[in-house]
Amino acid sequence: MSEEDEAEHPIELGDQTPVEGAPLARVSSRLHWPIEASEIDRREGESPIRTPDGPVKLEDLLSTIDVTYFSSRQEFERHVREAMGAGPVRTAE
After folding, report:
1. Residue pLDDT, tens place only, 12-60
2. Where do the record's region annotations for Disordered lie (predicted)?
């Protein structure tokens, strides 16, 4: 690597480790707000979401949430994050 490249990328990124499922933010960015939970399920329910327990279909997470209408993306993501739990996301095996 030349000095110019080192200046542009001063941090070694290392090998990429694959992670199964999509980030919640990617899925929620494809939706419009406000929106009903049933519409989210219809449009994105089959999408696997990255969770600490591995990928989980969004429809499975939505079934554990008692909210039927999300007024904002932030509200939706907060409820889904509570449903999926906190912790590091597993890498693909």
Report:
1. 555 677 778 899 999 999 999 999 999 999 999 999 999 988 899 999 9
2. 1-22
Show me where the domains of the chain are located: 24-84
Only one residue has tokens 């941090």, namely: 11
Angle at 50 between CA 92 and CA 85, to 5 degrees: 120
- The span from the CA of 37 to the CA of 34, in Å, is 10
Task: Write the CA distances from 9 to 6, 15, 16, 18, 39, integer angstroms.
Answer: 5, 15, 16, 22, 42
- Distance, in Å, from the CA atom of 49 to the CA atom of 21, rounded to the nearest integer, reads 5
